[in-house]
Amino acid sequence: MAPTIETFINSFQNRLEPPVRQHLKNVYATLMMTCVSATVGVFVDIYTSFQAGFLSTILGVGLMLMLIATPDNGKNTKLRLGYLLGFGLTSGIGMGPLLEYVSVVDPSIIVTALLGTSLVFVCFSIASMLAERGSWLYLGGTLMTLLTSMSLMSLANIFMQSHFLYQSHLYLGLILMCGFVLFDTQLIIEKRRMGSKDFVQHALELFIDFIGIFRRLVVILTQKEEQNRRRKRD
């Protein structure tokens, strides 16, 4: 076991230069802070009378755009971090109604989805870090094409109200977010090698991937639980 762990650690050290490793530490620490902020947002929505609804989505988009528009010049780090944590908070508030409903169906679904999301995210991140340099960057075009197709599918389903399209969109979205974890992780590494130290925006990109996987897993697991309950009643 010890040689295996030592080999695993050495593979990281051989693949990633010290500045890249330090940058990734900053990115993942910031990502964890954003996830905590999102958790606070969920509790605010569920356990208080504050119901932002669609307003939280508008605020979240605004904060994200402000973060992207604010230059990373070394002096705005705290401001940009505040925008990111605010985005995490509004994202959690926006997911509050979904998680409140799921907690009524089966609270364990939330824990299972969170563990599943963390496992998927960690595995795909490690796979991306240990892969050949730039080997996953080719996914960018495919992922953007799939994202555009899913947007059109979602728009069409507003009028068609097709259960098949909804389910296809749900599962394709899960695959898409997993692909983005591979792509974004390698892109962040390459950006750091080219001199970018913007760990705040890089954490934003990974947070969007993480929360996208989590939301879809929650919906999928809830659907399966409801189907099982209907079968038992029948």
From TrEMBL:
<feature type="transmembrane region" description="Helical">
    <location>
        <begin position="108"/>
        <end position="130"/>
    </location>
</feature>
<feature type="transmembrane region" description="Helical">
    <location>
        <begin position="81"/>
        <end position="102"/>
    </location>
</feature>
<dbReference type="GO" id="GO:0031966">
    <property type="term" value="C:mitochondrial membrane"/>
</dbReference>
<feature type="transmembrane region" description="Helical">
    <location>
        <begin position="170"/>
        <end position="189"/>
    </location>
</feature>
<dbReference type="InterPro" id="IPR006214">
    <property type="entry name" value="Bax_inhibitor_1-related"/>
</dbReference>
<feature type="transmembrane region" description="Helical">
    <location>
        <begin position="27"/>
        <end position="44"/>
    </location>
</feature>
<dbReference type="Pfam" id="PF01027">
    <property type="entry name" value="Bax1-I"/>
</dbReference>
<dbReference type="GO" id="GO:2001234">
    <property type="term" value="P:negative regulation of apoptotic signaling pathway"/>
</dbReference>
<dbReference type="GO" id="GO:0034620">
    <property type="term" value="P:cellular response to unfolded protein"/>
</dbReference>
<dbReference type="GO" id="GO:0019899">
    <property type="term" value="F:enzyme binding"/>
</dbReference>
<keyword id="KW-1133">Transmembrane helix</keyword>
<protein>
    <submittedName>
        <fullName>Bax inhibitor</fullName>
    </submittedName>
</protein>
<feature type="transmembrane region" description="Helical">
    <location>
        <begin position="50"/>
        <end position="69"/>
    </location>
</feature>
<comment type="similarity">
    <text>Belongs to the BI1 family.</text>
</comment>
<keyword id="KW-0472">Membrane</keyword>
<keyword id="KW-0812">Transmembrane</keyword>
<dbReference type="GO" id="GO:0033119">
    <property type="term" value="P:negative regulation of RNA splicing"/>
</dbReference>
<feature type="transmembrane region" description="Helical">
    <location>
        <begin position="137"/>
        <end position="158"/>
    </location>
</feature>
